[in-house]
Every structure is written in C-alpha cells, then in structure tokens.
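Researcher: Please predict.
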Amino acid sequence: MNQTQAIRIKKVNPDPLALILLAEIVDAGSVTGAARALGISQPAVSKQLKKLEESLGVSVFERGVRGMHATEYGVALLHRAKAIRSQVRQAGEEIAQKRGLNEGKVVVALSHFATIALLPKVISVFKKRWPLVELNIVPPTFQLGGLREGAPDFAVMSLPSEKLGSEYLSRTLYMTSLAIVVRPGHPFENAKSLAELNRAEWVFPSLESSVAIGLRRAFKKSKLPPPKCSVTCQTLTGLETLSRHSDLVAAMPFEVFEERNKASGLKQVLIDESIEGAKVVVLRWRESRPTPAAQDLEEAFANAAYDLAKEQALFRK
C-alpha cells in the first residue's frame, strides 16, 4: 500500500446503509437473496455495494460460480456491519415499545442450566408481558460470538474461564454445585468420596468446561490426581446417553440433574465432598442498549435465579 492509498483509506466514512447491505448479503449468500430479504430490487443492492467498494478502494466480495464470499476486507467489516444492523433494528423497536406497542424480537443465548433451571420460571411471565414479541433462543458459544453484533441481545451462561475483555459486561446470577452421576448398577454407584472415584473414566462437556474445571479443582483440593477424561460431549442428551450406556462417570449442575434424572435414568453418587460448579452470569456487550423487552427478560432471569437460590437454600437445610 502506497502513501496515497493510506491517506485515502483514512478519510473513508462508509455509508451505514451499505454496511447493513453487506451483512445481509453475507447472510443470504447473494445479492439476489439479500434483495429478497430486504424487499428491494437487486439493482438497488448492487448499486449500494458498488458505491461501498468504490469508497473503500477495495473489493469486499469475491464473485464466483458458487455465490459471493467476503474478502479479507469484507470479513474485517462484517462484525461492525452486523452491529450497525442490530442497533438500527433495536432503535426502532425501542421507540415502538416505549410508545406502548408490543412488538419486536429478542434473541437470547442460554446454557443447559439456564434452559432447564431458569427458563421455566421465566417464559410465562415474559410472554404475558410481551405476547407479540418474538423470542429466539440459541445456544451460547464460549467465544462469545455474536454479542458484539447484537445477536444474541445477551447470554445467560457459565462465566468463561478466560478473563473477559473490557468490552463485555457480566452480571452474576447464581452459583451452581455439581452432581456426579452414573448409570444404575455402576461399580462406583455407592462411592462416598472423591478418593473412591480416583480410578473412574469420565465424560466431560469439554476439557475446558466449567464442569471439568470444577472437578479438577475438587480433586486437587482432596490431594488427588486430576480426573481422567477419555470422552467429551458438548450436548446434554449425548452426555446422558454415554453415561447411561457405559461405565463413564459424568457431572452436571445439581439443578439440571434434579430436573432431568427421571428422564435420563441416571443416579447421583452421594459423595461427602461438595463440588463447586460454574458461576452463572448474564453477559452482554458493554455498548449494547437493550430494548425494554430485552431488559425485562434479563430482569426475569435475574429474579428466577434469586428464587432458585432461596429454594435450594431451604432444600439443603
């Protein structure tokens, strides 16, 4: 890149509408698909895309027989384009909701714990207050993908093990404890301590999951070698299936086991030690401005977590 090109790029201010179109084209895979999704003509989309590329002095898409693919410049712009698109949508929904109109969309990423232990306490209240708001529930990613771009609006999940960047806000809701589970008739079914489980083969959601971290911490506290994990499975149904049909030992939040044990057929190993699990938090991008419906949903999850903590405290007395 020569000096003239560098100066030119520094002066560029991409049209926000063109960036929104960029995000739509990536999602649709073509100009035609983007035009259809937006309800405008294909020539209009093509014209805006051409203006964007001319203003930047680079191509943001490669055209091929299999459709359009973002170039390195298009990829660099994409998360900002999606963030702008989300902010525009949320701005319109916020004004509508403040005017008393019950409409819009909320996207929330929920962990297994949040889905099983908290969502049942939340959904009826939220739908009663916002009956016409579309609620989309998606699984979270530990890379926190999408939060910057406004999809999801926020996540209710285990606090990631790595330190969060300053661009994220974290709100603690609940501290879980882990239940160790096995199939009926398992050789370790009647174990009373972690020491008795020292020879067990484990299945973890992943080696860096909150379950794995909690178990390693508990084994270390008991001055035992770390638990041996020979299989990982990120889905709850898969983890339950593996435990039910093998001698693999699993662990999950106690509240999840309590809700699922009849369906899963698994039994809790009642050891003497208490195993601390994940800290459940609400995570969102610091610069996001939740719509009234999204803010109401976040508060509903916070209230559900508070009520669950009180229930568990009474149960364990």
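Model: The chain has a mean pLDDT of 86.
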